[in-house]
Amino acid sequence: MQKELIIDPARCTVCRACVLACHFHHTRLFGTSESSIHITYDADTSDLVIQIDDTCDACVGESQHWCVQACVPGAVTLPHEAGDSKVVAG
Fold first, then answer.
1. How far is 47 from 65, CA to CA, in rounded Å?
2. Which of 5, 25, 70, 85 has the most neighbouring CB atoms within 10 Å?
3. Higher pLDDT, 88 or 26
4. Residue 23 is inside which H or E element, if any?
5. How many angstroms separate the CA atoms of 22 and 58, rounded?
6. What is the pTM of this model?
7. Sign of torsion, CA 83 22 56 16?
8. Burial of 11 (0-12, 13-18, 19+ CB in 10 A)
9. How far is CA 5 from CA 59, 73, 87, in A?
10. Alpha helices (H) in 28-89, listed in sequence order
11. Domain ranges in the chain?
C-alpha cells in the first residue's frame, strides 16, 4: 500500500478523526497517544500544523488507509485523489 499521503490544511476542520483512526490502526483502541498524525491548532492566530511522523506504516495489513477514510472534509488524501497545490507528507 502507498505510504505517501497528501495533506490539504485548507480543508482540515481540526476534527481529529484521522488522529483517532490512526491510533485505532496501531492499537485497536480509540485514543490519540499512539497516532502517527499530529494536529496543532492555535485558535488565536488560526495557525494549523498537521504532521505525520515516522511511525506511519501506511496502515500495513489493512485494506484501506484509515486516516483517508476517516477524513470527511477530504484534507487527507492519496496522491492520485488530490489536486495540485497540496503539502505532501510521508
1. 26
2. 5
3. 26
4. helix 17-27
5. 10
6. 0.85
7. positive
8. middle
9. 12, 15, 9
10. 66-70
11. 5-89
